[in-house]
Specification:
The structure holds two protein chains of two kinds.
Chain A: H1 2-5, E1 9-11, E2 14-16, E3 20-22, H2 30-40, E4 44-48, H3 59-67, E5 71-75, H4 82-96, E6 100-103, E7 106-108, E8 113-114, H5 116-128, E9 132-137, H6 141-150, E10 154-157, H7 171-180, E11 185-189, H8 195-203, E12 208-211, H9 213-216, H10 221-241, H11 261-271
Parallel strand pairs in A: 3-4, 3-12, 4-5, 6-9, 9-10, 10-11, 11-12
Antiparallel strand pairs in A: 1-2, 7-8
Helix pairs in contact in A: 2-10, 4-5, 5-6, 8-10
Chain B: E1 4-8, H1 12-21, E2 26-30, H2 41-44, E3 48-49, H3 51-54, H4 60-78, E4 86-87, E5 91-94, H5 100-109, E6 119-122, H6 123-129, E7 139-143, E8 147-149, H7 151-164, E9 168-170, H8 181-185, E10 188-191, E11 205-215, E12 225-227, E13 234-239, E14 243-247, H9 261-274, E15 282-293, E16 300-304, E17 307-311, H10 317-332
Parallel strand pairs in B: 1-2, 1-10, 2-9, 5-12, 10-17
Antiparallel strand pairs in B: 3-8, 4-8, 5-7, 6-7, 11-14, 11-15, 12-13, 13-14, 16-17
Classes of the chains: A alpha/beta, B alpha/beta.
Enzyme class (chain B): oxidoreductase
Family (chain B): Belongs to the DAMOX/DASOX family.
Catalytic activity (chain B): a D-alpha-amino acid + O2 + H2O = a 2-oxocarboxylate + H2O2 + NH4(+)
């Protein structure tokens, strides 16, 4: 058990035990956000700067996030070009004094799908500038390979488009990425709606999940936060425990051969 | 007993407080701007009275307080010398096909409020209520208890009536409420400064909202329409003289600068997708306001001896201010 409890994963060399990264948008109030973050047990919180207009304007809200004491992962939500994300990443580095950046570069506004080509280009620029880039990407194996080759130690493929709550739409793709990039930290980012979705991602061997709407948009965000915390732990335990093989033919868990005949009688009597 | 009372801030709560208090007491109003209080959130707001819709996100007690406030508005407006448009014909909530899921969850989360509840509507029922929306939406919700007021008219009329009641006005004056100086000159101080009260001790934050006012004679909507939107509720609120208020965005920022292109596009495209008649509407203004909010987004009425503060009304100014002001006034009377 002790090895399970001390189980951790790495984000650019830093170790984390909570496998739930949480977002800070769309909660009913900052107070509920703070309570949800505490309930989630998360050690990393993401925050968006794009729409605040200026660094000073968002101060009060960012201070609430800094007050959580968690590691802050700024994101570039709302950016559509390499130039925009690079500028915003530099602003994030100043505001939050961190070289971490969740790179979000939207290629299609309708389903907020990342632009894989611009994403790779921006990733290379930011890595060269000293950033630790966590790219939000699609579940395309070759894209993930290219990002890893560029130097990303963490990749964040989507489960489904942002905010849809559909869960893991393509488990085959996600499983393939896990198998082919065994040494890269993999985090499912976006598209989760239920704790069972998060649990599945961890069962597949993903190191963590990152989510926002699934908790912030729940009827009771704090309670849902508890549920996700438990689900992520369950999924991780399940992955480490290694699941039994799936079979097409039933195999009784108690062999009937060798069962004393009076026990079998008892069962029949009971039925009657 | 009649007191000498200072009301600090001439936004929505300041006006309501001055109106109630000047019936019985000598009132002096201090305001950092002019009589229009252009910086106040209440000046920019869409002035919706939507307790049922707001109950989806706020606590039940606040939504019930909203119902109480709606009952108070007619008698408040009856005090004024000029007529102010007030309407309580319900509001309509609609969603585009791709936002149907949001509408479902909105319906599930409506809290029953003292017998008031929402009614699901088919497309045909929507067009009965709002004929110009015929064929545009195939499902929606009607919230009969909801309404709205014309906040610009209220701002003007309240100032006029207060002047006639011989209320003293000190415009372009910032006062230090915490220094204790005012306490020597007045029996009571009612602090209605909103975000102006922000200090190290008073942990308020501003939540930016952008609002568009249109002149749209081609559009004939008779009641506020709320469109489901993934980030914030967008209302299309018909005001007198073919004017429509479209708003508001909700951004965790204290930037009070002009509206952004993104927000403007979001608001205007929301209006256009509800009614194509907005295409030829004239843009009268695009304004930005900062809603004063505490971290739990709940309002507070607090008292320290002679000093009574009403603050943190967040996005619920018109919805909650009458009841909160009544609470503050009761402490004095």
């Amino acid at each position: 058990m002790s090895s399970l409890i001390s189980d951790s994963f790495s984000i650019y060399g830093e170790q984390f035990t909570s496998r739930l990264l949480i977002g800070s948008a769309l909660y009913p109030s900052p107070a509920i956000m703070a309570d949800s973050i505490v309930a989630s047990g998360a050690q990393v919180v993401t925050v968006s700067l794009r729409r605040q207009q200026s660094a000073a304007a968002g101060d009060d809200f960012w201070q609430l996030i800094k007050d959580t004491g968690l590691k802050v992962l700024p994101n570039t939500a709302g950016c559509h070009s390499v130039k925009e994300v690079v500028t915003l990443a530099q602003m994030c580095r100043e505001v939050f004094a961190t070289d971490w950046i969740k790179l979000e570069l939207i290629g299609d506004d309708y389903n907020l799908q990342p632009d894989p080509f611009a994403l790779l280009e921006a990733t290379k620029i930011l890595l060269a500038d000293g950033f630790k880039v966590l790219p939000y990407c699609t579940d395309d194996l070759v894209l993930c390979q290219r990002l890893a080759e560029a130097g990303c130690e963490v990749l964040m493929p989507w489960g489904a488009p942002i905010g849809t709550g559909k869960g893991l739409l393509n488990q085959y793709n996600l499983r393939t990425i896990r198998e082919r990039l065994p040494d890269t930290t993999l985090i499912v980012d976006a598209g989760l709606g239920l704790p069972s979705h998060a649990c599945q991602a961890l069962e597949l061997g993903y190191d963590a999940v990152l989510l926002n709407s699934a908790i912030a948009g729940a009827g009771c965000p704090v309670t849902m936060s508890h549920a996700f915390k438990a689900a992520v732990e369950a999924g991780r335990f399940a992955y480490r425990a290694k699941a039994m093989p799936e079979k097409d033919v039933a195999a009784p868990s108690t062999p009937t051969m060798g069962m004393p005949f009076w026990h079998q009688d008892f069962g029949i009597k009971n039925k009657n | 007993m009649s007191y000498n009372i200072a009301v600090i801030g001439f936004g929505l709560t300041g006006r309501l407080a001055a109106l109630e208090l000047s019936l019985k007491h000598k009132v002096t109003v201090y305001e950092s701007g002019d009589e229009q209080a252009l910086d106040s959130a209440g000046k920019v707001a869409a002035a919706m009275l939507a307790p049922l819709a707001e109950s989806v996100l706020c606590e039940q007690d606040l939504a019930l307080l909203g119902l109480d406030s709606i009952r108070r508005w007619p008698s408040i407006l009856a005090q004024l010398d000029d007529e102010v448009f007030f309407q309580q014909q319900g509001s309509l909530v609609v969603a585009h096909q791709q936002d149907k899921g949001d509408l479902q969850s909105f319906i599930q989360r409506l809290k029953p409020l003292a017998g008031h509840h929402g009614h699901r509507l088919t497309g045909a029922q929507i067009s009965e209520l709002e004929p110009e929306l015929a064929g545009r939406f195939n499902q929606g919700v009607f919230l009969p208890c909801e309404g709205q007021i014309d906040n610009h008219a209220f701002y003007q009329a309240s100032f006029k009536t207060l002047k006639q009641r011989n209320v003293s006005f000190k415009f372009a004056q910032t006062v230090d409420v915490d220094s204790g100086n005012l306490q020597q000159s007045f029996d009571y101080i009612v602090d209605c400064r909103g975000l102006g009260a922000k200090s190290a001790a008073c942990k308020l934050r501003g939540v930016r909202g952008e609002v568009v006012r249109l002149f749209a004679p081609e559009v004939k909507l008779t009641r506020p329409v709320r469109l489901m939107h993934p980030r914030y509720p967008i209302y299309i609120a018909p005001k007198p003289n073919d004017q429509y208020v479209i708003g508001a965005t909700e951004i965790e920022s204290q930037d009070h600068g002009p509206a952004t292109v993104r927000s403007t596009l979001e608001l205007l495209s929301a209006a256009y997708t509800v009614h194509s008649g907005f295409a030829e509407a004239r843009v009268l203004s695009i304004q930005t306001g900062l809603r004063p909010a505490f971290s739990d987004n709940r309002p507070q009425v607090t008292q320290q001896q002679q000093l009574i503060s009403i603050n943190g009304l967040y996005r619920h100014g018109y919805l909650l201010a009458p009841s909160l002001v009544a609470d503050a006034v009761a402490r004095i009377n």
